[in-house]
Amino acid sequence: MSDGTLMGNVSEELLWDPKVDSDAIAIGANGGVITLRGTVGSFREKQEARKAAQRVFGVTAVNNELQVRLLDSREDADLRADALRVLMLDSLVPVTVDAEVNDGSVEGAVGSWAEHDEALLAAWAAPGVTHVDDRVRVEY
Question: I need a labelling partner for 110 at 20 to 30 A (CA). Which of 1, 15, 45, 133 fits?
Answer without folding.
Answer: 45
